[in-house]
Structures are given as C-alpha cells and as structure tokens.
Amino acid sequence: MSLSLYDISIPVYLTALNNLLALLDKAKAHADGEGADFAHWLDARLAADMHPLTRQIQIVSDAAKGGAARLAGLEPPAMPDEEITFDQLRDRLVRTIAFIETIRPEQVDGRETATIELKFPGRTMSFTGRDFLLNFSLPNFYFHLVTAYGLLRHKGAPIGKMDFLAGAQMRAA
Amino acid sequence: MSLSLYDISIPVYLTALNNLLALLDKAKAHADGEGADFAHWLDARLAADMHPLTRQIQIVSDAAKGGAARLAGLEPPAMPDEEITFDQLRDRLVRTIAFIETIRPEQVDGRETATIELKFPGRTMSFTGRDFLLNFSLPNFYFHLVTAYGLLRHKGAPIGKMDFLAGAQMRAA
User: Fold this and answer.
1) Which of A60, A157, B15, B30 is deepest in the core (most CB within 10 A)?
2) How confident is the model at residue A1 (pLDDT cuts 50, 70, 90)?
3) Are B71 and B132 in contact (CB under 8 A)?
4) Does residue B84 belong to the interface with chain A, where contact is any CB pair within 8 Å?
C-alpha cells in the first residue's frame, strides 16, 4: 500500500485545526469563568520579540490554507489579518477549515514532484510538493500551532496534550 | 509517484533532531556569553504544571526513537531519563539520531497498515502504521520540539524560525 500526498496533508491540517478550535473554546470558557479579559490572553507572547497569540492563530490559518492550496495548485483565499476578538479569530479558523474541506484528493495527488515556489522578499524557495509539505509546511504549521498552545497554557488554560492530540484518540481503537 | 512510509517519517525526525541540536548549541553559546547558568534554562517551564526544558528534550528523544522504532517493528533503545547537564542532553540527542540513522527503508516500507499498539496505564491505543505516524507520533514529536523552542526563546536565546526550519532551507533550491 502506498500513501498519497492528499492523505498525508489535508486530513492532518483539518484534524489539527479542529483541535485548535476546541483548545480555544476551552481556554475562552475558562477565562470567562474566572472573569478574565480574554483580550489579554490574545496579546500574550512567550518573548518580547515573538508574535502574540492573535498573530500565531492567524499564521496557523495561513500555514494551513496556504499549504493546502499550494499542494492543490490553487491560490489560497485571502484573509486579511484584521481579527481582534476571540469570535473573529474563531471565525477565521472556521473559514480556513471550510476552504481546506473543499480540496479533493484528485487535486493534490500526483503533485508529489510538482514545483512549488514560495516568494519572500529578496529570495524564492523552490520545493517539490512532497518536500514542501514535509520540510516546510507541516513544521511551520506545527510551529505556530504549538506556540499558540503554549501561550494558552502559559495563561492558565486547563488544557493538556490529549486535547492537542485529540484526533489521534478518535482514530485509535 | 507514490510516497513511502519511510520517506515521510525517518528523514523528518532526523532533520528536526539535527535542527534541535543546532538550536541548543546556539542557546548554550548565548547563555555562556552572558555568564548565565544554563541549568536555570534547563529548569524553565511555560506553566508551573508543564515539564521543564530538560524533560521536553527527553520526550523529543523518546517520541523520535519510539516512533521510528515502532514504524520499523523494532523495540526502541532504552535511554533512562537521567540527563541533568547540557552535555548529557546533547549526547542523548546524538545517540537518538544515531539509532534512527540505522533504520533502513525496507524495515519501514510496507508497514502502512501494520498494527502499532501503544500501551498506557489503563488503556491501549491501536493504530495503523500510517495513522500512528500522522495522527500521533509526528504531532507529539512537534509538540515537545516546539515547546523546547519556545522555552529557549522565552529565556532569551537568539534563535528564530529559520533555525527551526533549517532543513527546509537546505533542501530548497
């Protein structure tokens, strides 16, 4: 049995995004129950020169929709980084999930060796589809996702690793 | 072109572990340069009930050698969690990398649907090889790896996301 590029990408983004929604909901409910202002949580950073939680969530969205779209040979839908509130960030994740759910296996499979270019100021990174996913997109996605988790824990959210790995539990017997 | 279970696992662990070694070396050199006691860095936590950096690094090692070994149908080599110093933790990562480098494609490929069981106190999780990697092992590996990164940043290490994604840069044109 072989693996397809779709199998190792789209469901992975979707499981993790749904887990992040559940983590945020738990954190928000906890903050509300304590009478805390969640805006302070959204401004939290692990270091002064790191992005705050709001931006981490926006980048999680970008990494997932950008990764999924590029693997499928599509332009990712633009989502201006204008979210300020919990509800706005939650809605962005819901829209990110909805976009990724539209991607079908036949759009991704077969693009393992297709060229995917990422343009940054002053340089272009060029990958095969497979290397883009494994060496850039997924590590970058998890980088911001786990940083968001760490910020929620740092602020006192009653969440744990099993929330982060929830998709694994659903799939395990 | 299809993907193999080896391709999407063993090189991913190895790239990330080598990146972690480089991140730790940079952080240690910085702490030394500032006259800081790195033991305090190794004790750092993002929340009082989270594991400190030392334990995060040990679990990164466990996740990688355990994941790679189970995919290959092997027992992971035991590494008692006795490391206290930077040099000991660094050596553990080097030994973890050396073990994973011994795993050959033919030991992993074909095990996409093999049953992999994880025994925890009071429960057993049962996966296919593919689901074990994608839904449990890699998310768990990145969970502790990015938490270790966050702790190093939290303590002031002069590292950035491009250090975390270094393998991607090497592979991109």
Assistant:
1) A60
2) low
3) yes
4) no
